[in-house]
């Protein structure tokens, strides 16, 4: 069985922003890359004026449109096996904490954990990933759908393990404090600085001490693919986004390098002062089925 890696994300565009370079990196290597997206992102803001009426409060058609954006983004990243958890529209974008969207009967935040996890178990049984990638327990920055995606990915992995096909390694997306600090400093004099009010990186709801990071994937040769994927999500990421400012000013180093903590499994051999792995399959026999 070839290398198989599964990414679990909350909304269309999360995959490109957080793990786009990693996905492109492994797709180019010939690994089976599966993306499971949990909602259609119906509650997202719209940055394309002529599409404004697609918003939830009006036509409520943004989710379907974002599905087409997702397909275009994944085409830019390479050969990706794309799935929607439970099928497209099974779970709805929950919006932010405390909003009415949280109370929608299909809101992912309110989904039955066992039921949602079983949808993912079915996919895992089919693709047999050795590696699973998702968010940490805080959903990286606290969004309810990200938190729920974490819960579903972890519970599904547990069930899969009980059935003999669980992943050998589980990673959570991370942003090293050193990288976060460098980014804030680099944007200090920018006219489009979203972090202008930040004086201490500890104020962010995310950021991982460097010594707690386990892996650093250098997908900088897929920088252009990641930028193209971001541009495909035009309703969510405006042309004036700080992401593109960073892409233009700091390019491959920032956009193409992604970091992770290891939540489950044995850490493989790494490099640098903290021994960061450079391959999420490090320590696993190439081509082996998921082992437990």
The domain tally reads: 1
Number of extended strands: 7
Spatial strand sequence of the major β-sheet: 3-2-1-4-5-7-6
Compressed to H and E, one letter per element, the order equals EHEHEHEHEHEHHHE
Low-pLDDT runs? 287-292
Apparent shape = globular
Could you give me the name of the CATH homologous superfamily?
LmbE-like
Number of continuous helical runs:
8
Structural overview:
With 292 residues, the chain is α/β, with parallel strands linked by helices. It has a single domain (4-174, 215-264), classed as LmbE-like (Rossmann fold, 3-Layer(aba) Sandwich). The chain has helices at 14-28, 62-77, 113-127, 144-162, 177-186, 223-232, 242-249, 251-255, and strands at 4-9, 32-37, 80-84, 131-134, 169-174, 215-218, 257-264. Helix 4 (144-162) links the parallel strand 4 and strand 5 (169-174). It is globular. The model is unreliable at 287-292 (pLDDT under 50).
């Amino acid at each position: 069985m070839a290398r198989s890696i599964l990414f679990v994300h909350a909304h269309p565009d999360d995959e490109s922003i957080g793990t786009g370079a990693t996905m492109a990196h492994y797709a180019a290597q010939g690994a089976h890359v599966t993306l499971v997206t949990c909602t259609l992102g119906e509650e997202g803001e719209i940055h394309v004026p002529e599409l404004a009426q697609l918003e939830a409060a009006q036509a409520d058609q943004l989710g379907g449109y974002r599905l087409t954006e997702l397909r275009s983004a994944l085409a830019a990243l390479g050969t990706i096996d794309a799935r929607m958890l439970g099928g497209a529209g099974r779970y709805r974008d929950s919006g932010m904490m405390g909003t009415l969207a949280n109370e929608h009967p299909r809101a992912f935040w309110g989904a039955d954990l066992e039921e949602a996890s079983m949808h993912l178990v079915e996919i895992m049984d089919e693709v047999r990933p050795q590696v699973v990638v998702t968010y940490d327990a805080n959903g990286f920055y606290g969004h309810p759908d990200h938190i729920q995606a974490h819960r579903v990915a972890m519970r599904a992995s547990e069930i899969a393990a009980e059935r003999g096909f669980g992943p050998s390694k589980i990673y959570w997306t991370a942003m090293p404090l050193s990288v976060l600090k460098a980014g804030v400093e680099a944007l200090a004099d920018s006219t489009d600085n979203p972090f202008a009010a930040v004086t201490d990186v500890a104020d962010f709801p995310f950021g991982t001490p460097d010594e707690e990071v386990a892996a650093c994937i250098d997908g900088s040769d897929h920088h252009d693919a990641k930028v193209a994927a971001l541009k495909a999500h035009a309703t969510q990421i405006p042309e004036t986004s700080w992401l593109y400012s960073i892409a233009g000013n700091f390019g491959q180093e920032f956009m193409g390098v992604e970091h992770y903590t290891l939540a489950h499994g044995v850490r493989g051999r790494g490099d640098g002062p903290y021994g960061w792995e450079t391959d999420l399959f490090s320590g696993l026999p190439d081509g082996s089925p998921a082992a437990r």
